[in-house]
Design brief:
The protein is an all-alpha fold and about 400 residues long. The chain is about 80% helix and about 0% strand. The chain has a single domain, classed as Growth Hormone, Chain: A (Up-down Bundle). The protein is built from 18 helices and no strands. The two termini are about 35 Å apart.
């Protein structure tokens, strides 16, 4: 009994660390409207401040996975958990500097790139079951991503020091996460005199036989993961801010919370559907959410953002769980960290979507590009539902490339 109990404690400890880092990642999200007023940011600058997160995240994802496969999970994760605390403290001064705001978002991206990719691989190795690991990871990430902006939005709307107190809450939670990390063991056996493994510095981790399934099926599902919540918490509040006087920050926090928390609650549906079906279903539901958002924008009815958030949350949750499950089945044991990082790098490309919509819409606004995006995603959902695409990522098909 003791080994089982000890393993559960280790899983809870690592899960908590991932959760609190995810919590901090989205603390600035509803506060961007506060920064917009304080710093006089344009719509493009606002979406840019949101999207620069991906500029720090994608390189970190691509480098951290292979590094953890070489040197171990712990030496890579722990320093960046500490950096998460430092970044939240730096955010306290961001209300007086556009440059510092962008720097802090960049650092948040780097922290997330390391902790989410390597932490996910670390958690999967502790658990030993790809499907269960995907569910617990989605719960940790989705729960943190949801509760962080919800708390920050409510605090930022109605409490004093809106650009200070939410970050102090995150710092307090991070101290708990740091206190628990020492009990989590390293999961990779050490090779060589210095405990290092051989391998390339940059490694996408895609087995040769899995390249086609990854490119055709996993990649579009991955991009869909964060396209839904990033659009929900930036583009839609900007479009409807005139309809939400005095409550826009709080509503943005609620929309972010509902979107991301719905993704967690969508996990039972994902298990029922299975990863092969959950991916295209998630894309289809997300496209429907974008369609309903156009109705909300055209009528100026901000309460419709709540059902929109539910649909986008279901889409995000199904895509994330399906993608992580597929990655667990496709990855080789020695490159799981690298492939997980590659998946997240593709997923976080969705953070660039709000900025792309802003640029594409120009002075005409977001509505037409948003409608085009909804149609594109619906088209991908239909394509991935075809039998030829489904066969590429069935467990029987995935077992061959993943075992090499």
């Amino acid at each position: 009994m003791r080994p089982v109990l000890e393993r559960r404690r280790e899983i809870v400890a690592l899960w908590t660390a991932v959760f609190v880092v995810a919590f901090g990642t989205n603390v600035p999200t509803p506060l961007l409207l506060v920064y917009q007023d304080i710093l006089g940011l344009s719509a493009s600058a606002l979406t840019g401040a949101f999207g620069v997160y991906a500029a720090g995240l994608v390189p970190a994802l691509l480098l951290a996975g292979p590094a953890s496969d070489r040197y171990g999970r712990r030496p890579v994760v722990v320093p960046f958990v500490v950096l998460s605390v430092v970044t939240s403290l730096l955010f306290i001064g961001a209300s007086g500097s556009v440059v510092l705001l962008f720097v802090c978002r960049f650092l948040q991206g780097a922290v997330s790139g390391v902790v989410f990719s390597v932490g996910t691989a670390w958690l999967a190795e502790l658990i030993g079951d790809p499907a269960r690991a995907a569910r617990l990871t989605t719960a940790a990430l989705g729960g943190g991503w949801a509760i962080g902006p919800l708390v920050a939005g409510l605090m930022g709307q109605w409490l004093p020091l809106p650009t200070v107190l939410p970050y102090l809450v995150h710092v307090a939670l991070m101290l708990v996460g740091l206190a628990l990390l020492p009990r989590v063991p390293e999961t990779l056996a050490r090779d060589g005199g210095f405990g290092r493994r051989s391998g390339p510095l940059v490694n996408l981790g895609v087995p040769p036989g899995a390249r086609l399934p990854f490119l055709v099926v996993v990649l579009p599902i991955a991009v869909g993961v964060f396209t839904f919540p990033s659009t929900a918490v930036t583009v839609l509040p900007l479009l409807l801010t005139p309809s939400m006087p005095q409550i826009a920050v709080a509503v943005t926090g609620v929309v972010a919370g509902v979107t991301l928390l719905t993704g967690v609650f969508a996990q039972p549906l994902g298990r029922t559907l299975g990863a092969v079906n959950a991916g295209p279903t998630g894309l289809a539901v997300g496209a429907a959410g974008f369609g309903l958002s156009l109705v909300s924008v055209s009528t100026g009815s901000w309460p419709l953002l709540i059902p929109v958030a539910v649909l986008l949350g279901i889409g995000y949750g199904l895509c994330l769980a399906a993608g992580l499950t597929m990655v667990g089945e496709l990855a080789t044991p020695t490159a799981r960290g690298a492939l997980t990082g590659t998946f997240y790098a593709c997923a976080y490309l969705g953070f660039a979507v709000p900025l792309l919509l802003s640029v594409a819409g120009g002075e005409e606004g977001f509505a037409e590009p948003l409608a085009a995006l909804a149609l594109i995603i619906a088209g991908f959902a239909a394509l991935l539902a075809l039998p030829v695409a489904r066969r590429l990522v069935t467990p029987a098909a995935a077992a061959v490339p993943g075992s090499s």
